[in-house]
Write a structure and sequence with these properties.
The complex is a heterodimer. Chain A is 34% helix and 12% strand. By secondary structure, chain A is α/β, with parallel strands linked by helices. Chain A has a single domain, classed as TIM Barrel (Alpha-Beta Barrel). In chain A, α2 packs parallel to α14 (377-401). Chain B is built from 2 helices and 11 strands. The termini of chain B are far apart. The longest helix of chain B has 13 residues, at 185-197. Chain B is mainly beta. Classes of the chains: A alpha/beta, B mainly beta. Chain A binds chain B through residues 31-32, 144-145, 148-150, 153, 177, 189-191, 194-195, 197, 199, 203-205, 210, 213-214, 216-217, 220-224, and chain B through 11-12, 15-16, 19, 39-40, 43-44, 46, 58-60, 63-64, 66, 78-79, 82-83, 85, 97-98, 101-102, 104, 117, 120-121, 123-124, 139-140, 142-143, 159, 161-162, 218-220, 222-223. Chain A: It comes from Hyphomicrobium sulfonivorans. Chain A: Keywords: Oxidoreductase.
Chain lengths: 441, 228
Amino acid sequence: MSYHNPPTTPRKSATFDDYTLSEIRRAATTGIYDIRGAGAKRKLPHFDDLLFLGASMSRYPLEGYREKCSTEVVLGTRFAKKPIHLKIPITIAGMSFGALSGNAKEALGRGANIAGTSTTTGDGGMTPEERGHSKTLVYQYLPSRYGMNPDDLRKADAIEIVVGQGAKPGGGGMLLGQKISDRVAEMRTLPKGIDQRSACRHPDWTGPDDLEIKILELREITDWEKPIYIKVGGARPYYDVALAVKAGADVVVVDGMQGGTAATQEVFIEHVGQPTLACIRPAVQALQDLGMHRKVQLIVSGGIRNGADVAKALALGADAVAIGSAALVALGDNDPALESEYQALGTTAGAYDDWHEGRDPAGITTQDPKLATRLDAELAGRRLANYLKVMTLEAQTIARACGHNHVHNLEPEDLCALTIEAAAMARVPLAGTSWIPGQGL
Amino acid sequence: MPAIDLSTTPLRELNQSLHALAEGNNETEWEVLNPDGRHAVAVGIDAPVSVDIRGPVGYYCGGMNKQATVTVHGSAGPGVAENMMSGKVVIKGDVSQYAGATGRGGMLVVEGNAASRCGISMKGIDIVVKGSIGHMSAFMAQTGNLVVLGDAGDALGDSIYEARLFVRGNVQSLGADCVEKEMRDEHLELLEDLLQRSGITGVKPSEFRRYGSARKLYNFNIDNADAY
């Protein structure tokens, strides 16, 4: 019997996998951290790890097409003279003109109008087109204060004070030189073509005690009419929400780490913040402990994709959700029809995230007029409206199956979890058991 | 001349009355009594009126002002005249942090001293301080002019963009990417005008030094990473 030297299969390291190796080479070659758009791409415990129980013997369902299941939401009932009334519990998250083309912003407004919901400005201020195309517009109040002025503040339907966002809790905005066109530069009062670094802290307040006074000022300027939201990234949701309530918010927005951004460091997106699923119950707990659940409304965002996600977020106690990345996909972002162009950019449809470079073949995350005109704002708006309506129908379908005549009547008792991690985060029992990990004996 | 006494009238009523003013109204001179350090006094005005506040105010006095002349006969708390668009805010005493933060237009005159972060993120406002200013002033200042007759604290103009800084006294230190620049004729003329409009006499533009951006951090370069 002869022994040759049988070769072992070449083995790649799980620690130093292909992506990791490519990132080391990229850093060594370029000398700059990787910057990209979108949210966390790593696998995280998410809504897919939850299931609805549905009605059976102990609860009875509502008749699918006959018995009403309402979806309307009122936001800003605590202090604002003019709360916002939405037909559906799905809003469009803040995205700036600058990050997005004017056409893309118009499409978001058109889609939201048809579906009966709100859109939100971003870092860079409010454009007249955006105000014109959005029936209900939330105006973001950001650390950079680009484009901030009292006239737009009064034109807004609500004001969202941005403390942080899920993609980068503790980080500021960033818009690289190639997207600072003449108009974007003018709106931000900056020289054209420079890297725009937005501050991560507000320039004129620090901490919740100051914020309370800042909110007083904004309410005084707008004669107490507008709902005031506070948006936080998914960092310490229990304390952040409690402090937002203390500071005087009408609405709190909690954005988990799957929430997208126009551009930030990859290391920030993937390594800072908590998954959306882990943020909801602590946020709701804070509202309940203060006796403010449903009085201060909670909007959850970060990785909401379909009506099941909406229903699950609401069942865990949110009043509404916000979508950003998913809305862009509905407009046409990362469409496989553009595969050859994505290939030319060194990527593939579904993976394109170099939104900061302004070369988006779909005409969405760009300031290049030629690329921007590729997006038909009316058609894209219609697509977004369709998608919002489908999501709403899906959430209603689930709510009826669980026996509820309003999507807000969904509750944690309607859910079970497929994994121990999801059970612990959502504080619902592991499927087939009565075990909620982390709740003690 | 309407006089509103904040010890008996709610703040809401004062601001609502000021917002209700349309251009060309007859009540162009307002007086506010007993402000007692209240916050958000005379914010969001958009009319060519004058408001004289008799005493000290808290946070954000004159915030987002348009057209009006707001005079505080006392000292002001943090964020005075924040995001001012136009008009004039004059503080007879000292001011706290973030004076004139993100201001886009108009003029802020501080007759006393200003604390830290004076002119932070300014976007077109003119700020004239007769006394001295604290540390980190003009941080990320984008455009506009900051004139200081006294001294400036540490890290003046850190991460500055295109704002112009004129300091007559000593500058403790300059922040990242802020450098002393040549004072040319156009700057002397600009300074002359700013001093005149803020009612300052007996001070010559030639007594000041000019500071602004070295523009080295405008586009990222890894070899400048220790400056961030």
